[in-house]
Amino acid sequence: MSKGLPKRSEDYSLWYNELVKKADLAENSAVRGCMVIKPYGYSIWEKMQAELDRMFKETGHSNAYFPLFIPKSYLSKEASHVEGFAKECAVVTHYRLKNAEDGSGVIVDPEAKLDEELIVRPTSETVIWSTYKNWVQSYRDLPLLVNQWANVVRWEMRTRLFLRTTEFLWQEGHTAHATKKEAEVETKQMMNVYAQFAEDFMALPVVRGRKTESERFAGADDTLCIEAMMQDGKALQAGTSHFLGQNFAKAFDVKFATKEGGLEYVWGTSWGVSTRLMGALIMAHSDDNGLVLPPKLAPIQVVIIPIYRKEEEFDAITEKVNEITAELRKVGVSVKYDNRDTHKPGWKFAEHELKGVPLRIAIGPRDLENGTIEIARRDTLTKEQFELASQPISEKISSMLDEIQTSIYSKALNFRTEMTTEVNSWDEFKELLEEKGGFLSAHWDGTSETEDKIKDLTKATIRCIPLDQKEEAGVCVYSGKPSTGRVLFAKAY
Amino acid sequence: MSKGLPKRSEDYSLWYNELVKKADLAENSAVRGCMVIKPYGYSIWEKMQAELDRMFKETGHSNAYFPLFIPKSYLSKEASHVEGFAKECAVVTHYRLKNAEDGSGVIVDPEAKLDEELIVRPTSETVIWSTYKNWVQSYRDLPLLVNQWANVVRWEMRTRLFLRTTEFLWQEGHTAHATKKEAEVETKQMMNVYAQFAEDFMALPVVRGRKTESERFAGADDTLCIEAMMQDGKALQAGTSHFLGQNFAKAFDVKFATKEGGLEYVWGTSWGVSTRLMGALIMAHSDDNGLVLPPKLAPIQVVIIPIYRKEEEFDAITEKVNEITAELRKVGVSVKYDNRDTHKPGWKFAEHELKGVPLRIAIGPRDLENGTIEIARRDTLTKEQFELASQPISEKISSMLDEIQTSIYSKALNFRTEMTTEVNSWDEFKELLEEKGGFLSAHWDGTSETEDKIKDLTKATIRCIPLDQKEEAGVCVYSGKPSTGRVLFAKAY
């Protein structure tokens, strides 16, 4: 098992790319910007999906499925929406291939041209709101609380595995409500669901905030978001929840008969997280030895490796391992017994470290004699001898897994705290951004001009206006104009 | 609740279309041939997915994800494969929209033309085998046992909800093996997994068989299938499993170092089932009152409806219902208490009948006095009074659900038996096909010419050569040439 991972301190970006490939998470495909999610990477995504899906259902949502293709005219119906997505749309223009007459191979049949071009969905607001028009007649049909798990395509020029790919997997919730208030509550609720998922399952502390006008979703009146801090001091937007006002209802003429007998446009929200979360998970916790996975999302939580020279030793170890495995599975711990005879223990240690298995148990003949096992923690790279008689193994392992989950979260939280700095002058802003990075908490005058100017000069953007922003009189770090509270700036993925 | 379903006996096709829409399963979208799967329909598909996914994992497969787009040149690498799919490919040619200079709206940007056109995957053999080339070096890397849940697009001219749509959802397994034997065993195993799923969960008896050469998957050496019989006497192919030989390995140069030090092409399989299964489920069991769902796939297994006039009655009923609901949920039965005060009981009865809820419980004030409930079975439309003191409600309901599952299966099996006829002359063949339909078990001379001729004359195709075909000397029902066993003919969806 040759890991050969670059060090984070030397080349964070290369470290990330190599880790994604070497840990069997994903790889680039032959199609520009499209990735292949490999089985191990996909099994982590499946665990994310399962938890998110449960949370969506617990908050009253149902899944449905809408078409991959969107007629070009639909995309154009909401002005700022098409403005936001037109530059990155994959367009289907034909529906048939044929053999070239000169025998040169298969070509697109020019006679099979579509009357209207179809866009491969970059997001589904337009096709869904065109459907909602028929689903909503009266207040009795509301709210509509629908989610979709799907692939979407945005033609990105610079792509990176998981973080920015032409095709990605995501879920997109689309809800319709009778009142503005209800839609606002839903928008906030789903941001909170995302934050809870990030913190409880991904062990990823996030700032809950609101996007500035220029960072809003194309077609939204308000965008809430969760923002996380990566180990290189760059921020990553991990999920967004949009209050759409009546914009899509108006674009697609979705009205409902109110209880009082009136006719009104409905109010909408949409919200999504994507395979980008995989990138966040990797970049937040992993180290120079490989992945570090929070136990709640690890496909394998415990790997057991036998250490032996002779066949009889192996048999005796295996017998003990079978006992332990049964105990652990009984309490829902996922265990793998790596009994391959094609690889040495040291090779296996390195491989499971690379793949982020939270706990590794090693058992040799001496352990059998002494009634012990060696337990190694992936996150801290620490080992301990454990006496099997001292405590039921299932209790021991469960409590260690809990401890790891908490500990990974705390570490990330401490890091973020350390990487969040209040700055009060433009020189300080520039200096800190260059030397340390992280979140810069600074006053801003509230204008897009200043925001754009700061972005042009430093590449830092306003990640969000934190929802827990304190009222505090101050002056804009760039323009010197008055401000009533601090916002978070950072360079971002 | 106005059902207004057409009768099967009068217009089976219209009955199907209307049922799919009225039971909130799916509807046509604005994009030709693409459907919207509505939340209720999707929840049935989710149950199917969960069971199939479990079965795939139990047989050692992992999920992964491959790109939506396939470079045109890839599709062309396997000659018979491109031949089979070229006529129905959606083609992406551009990657950007822009505002027309004459202000007429948004147009496809002619400058954003792709160097090589991309095909929206109609199936993923080519993109997956191009990936496998890098995943397989030695016999140690085999077998590769991968499945993908995805959407695919085939540009169909005549579409019908679930049965034939331009975009559909499916799973596609793609495996690679060191030996021919292993790949053949896998092909058969997955056909058996499909058959078991169809019979145990969908309550749908299927014939396990082999496709004739002309009905094989484009690029396969052998195609196994499961075939089901619908209520109108037409057959429906419910799943296929392909032995690909070394065709795709050769097209994409996928070789492996053998244990013995040689270098050989790997052997492949692929297998898939799709949202078409939803069509089969609906058409096999449902009746003129609506859906009939097997309990194992019903999103709601039991609906409870209160019958009351006064508010106090409702409260007392609700208290009893809460007890019953808790008991049922404890044993894993999914229950819905339909306590809406906006609709009358009769309306609710009809709605849940339409939606195929297997059991309906009604409780009124007299039931409370007598300690009874009324239980109605959807499949038989029969009712019984049940004394709550006579047996724990969870036992009663569980056993009724089991009984329904078995009974729906038996009914479908009896129907199929009745609709399978041995025919021995061409006149008999034509007459039976017209008057009765169903499977015609007949001798065939084994040639594609005869097969095509029969298809031209009668629209009947050879659905399969049953795997349990008996050796029996005979003469071809059409050509009179010798034959060694019977095959199944039918008109099919």
Proportion in β-strands of chain A: 25-35%
* CATH topology tier name of the largest domain in chain A: BirA Bifunctional Protein, domain 2
What average pLDDT do the residues of chain A reach? 96
Question: What overall form of chain A do the CA principal axes indicate?
Answer: globular
Name the CATH superfamily assignment of the largest domain in chain A.
Answer: Bira Bifunctional Protein, Domain 2
Q: Quick one: biggest sheet of chain A?
A: 11 strands, mixed
Structural class of chain A: alpha+beta
Strand order of the largest sheet of chain A: 3-9-10-16-13-12-11-24-27-23-22
Q: What is the number of beta strands of chain A? A: 27
Oligomeric form: homodimer
GO molecular function, one term (chains A, B): proline-tRNA ligase activity
Protein name (chains A, B): Proline--tRNA ligase
GO cellular component, one term (chains A, B): cytoplasm
Subcellular location (chains A, B): Cytoplasm
Account of the protein in words:
Two copies of one chain form a homodimer. With 493 residues, chain A is of the alpha+beta class. Chain A has three domains: 12-72 and 124-285, Bira Bifunctional Protein, Domain 2 (BirA Bifunctional Protein, domain 2, 2-Layer Sandwich), CATH 3.30.930; 300-399, Rossmann fold; 421-490, Translation Initiation Factor IF3, CATH 3.30.110. In chain A, the strands form seven sheets. In chain A, strands 3-9-10-16-13-12-11-24-27-23-22 form an eleven-stranded mixed β-sheet, with helices on both faces. In chain A, strands 18-17-19-20-21 form a five-stranded mixed β-sheet, sandwiched between helices. In chain A, helix 2 packs across helix 6 (180-200). Chain A is globular and about 80 Å long. Chain A starts with 11 loop residues before the first helix and ends with a strand.
